[in-house]
Each structure stands twice: as C-alpha cells, then as structure tokens.
Amino acid sequence: MDEQTVIKALAALAQPLRLQAFRALVAVGPQGMTPSTIAEGLGVPQNTLSFHLKELTHAGLVTQERVSRHIIYRADFAQMNALLGYLTENCCGGSVCGPDAAGATCC
Predict the structure, then answer these.
(1) Number of domains composing the chain
(2) Higher per-residue confidence, 60 vs 103
(3) Which of 79, 87, 68, 85 is nearest to 25 (CA)?
(4) Which end of the chain has the least Cβ crowding within 10 Å, N or C?
(5) What global pTM score does this model have?
(6) With the CA atoms of 35, 74, 33 and 65 taken in that order, what torsion angle do they form, in degrees rounded to the nearest 10?
(7) E strand or H helix that includes residue 12
(8) C-alpha 75: how far from its chain's center?
C-alpha cells in the first residue's frame, strides 16, 4: 500500500461519524447495509450520512453495490487489512510482540 492511499484512508477515518459508520459496516460483515439502516443505527439524517459514505468510498475503505432499488455499502476488508498491515509492518523492529508473545511488550 502506498503512502498516499494510507493518508487518504486515515483522513477519512479521522472524523467521528465516518469512523462510526465504518465500524458499523465492519461489524455487520460482508452482507453490508443500506444507507437508511446505517443512518437509523447511528441516529443521523440520511443526507448527512451520504456525504460521509462518499468520503469512505473515495478512500477505498467502503464499496457500494446496487441491488434492485437499494445501494448496499460494505467495508472493504482487503483494504482495511492492507492499511493495518502498513501501520504495523515495522512493529518492534520485526521482533515478536503483542499479547500473544509470552511476556513480550510492544514498544
């Protein structure tokens, strides 16, 4: 993943409503949700949410698919995992770290 893509994704997530919407899409999994369902769950107007979903889509974190009269939004798990991989690529200088490593602490 290139640096500009990472910056775009992090910028998109650096807004509370977009972060909440993205987390909701991650939680529901590959089935995705319609904008009205997301808006209802977050308690925001649908037109406000539409702007934020567009930003997440532009950043590559969310995909959309038209199904009949509805648009289904889904978290792009491959992109999310690539972003997480980029952020942790050099964690602890390549040493084993994290909760699974016995007694290891992450710097």
Answers:
(1) 1
(2) 60
(3) 79
(4) C
(5) 0.85
(6) 70
(7) helix 3-13
(8) 6
